[in-house]
Automatic annotation (TrEMBL):
It comes from the Bacteria. It is a multi-pass membrane protein. InterPro entries: AA-Vitamin_Transporters, EamA_dom, EmrE-like. This is DMT family transporter. Its main location: membrane. Keywords: Membrane, Transmembrane, Transmembrane helix. The chain crosses the membrane at residues 33-54, 66-86, 117-135, 141-160, 172-190, 202-220, 232-252. GO terms for cellular component: membrane. Residues 142-271 form the EamA domain. Belongs to the EamA transporter family.
Amino acid sequence: MKLKNIPPVPAVLLSIISVQGGAAIAKGIFPVMGAAGTVSLRIVLSAILLLAVYRPSFKSITPIQWKWAAIYGLALGIMNTTFYLSLSRIPLGLAVTLEFLGPLVLAISTSRKAIDFLWAFMAAVGIALIAPWHSNSDIDLIGAGLALLAGAFWAAYIILGSKVTKLMDSGQAVSIGLIFASCIALPAALIEGNLGNISPNIFLLGMGIALLSSAIPYTLEMNALKHIPAKTFSILMSLEPAAAALCGLVFLHEHLSILEWTTIALVVAASTGSTLTKSKTSNSIDV
């Protein structure tokens, strides 16, 4: 089955599994490439792959399409770079849970049903449980701050992705967007200074990360955004913390505290409740 033929809700769920598996692999090469070097390798290789697959006709792209693809791509680049920098300081599950605050705020701001506020509040309580409220907290504040910043750009990515897919083909939008995302990731990698550590083995791992964390999930998400509202997309993406925590545990041996697992459980429960509510009250999702 082609990626574009996968129904929107399964496409988003498959995207979550893919991107978190890729993130776990990426964190494993941080000691060699650094966070910025790893995200640069991922984004640049993803851009090359998708440009080869979709072969966008640059001459046929209108100025307005260039404009929105560029804004979308820059947001994508900042989102990924800040997230990987946070990942170098805090566990994968915790980073994704904090990052989710962005889509959560988006869900609240666009809500029209009282029940949706309940699910959003449940997720907010979960996030509040692991916030570093006291000075002796063992959570890295810079890492947490970077994860929250990544979340803000995640919300922007959702909005801009929904906009740009209405203006152009989703495959073209992602491939062109990644060109602009590279303009953010590459300078950060040059400043960090680890690009010279690329070896054949690292290159192959980078190709796998590019496929799992960018090429496959972004294509799935952009296609899904054509058929489901931005708020519904945000609710489904709240499953990210659970997937991230499990991938961190299995692949990186990152053990979370009971409080952190409670946080993730609350976020997943909020996501499940919201999705079930949507399925009963709306026919706009083609599953």
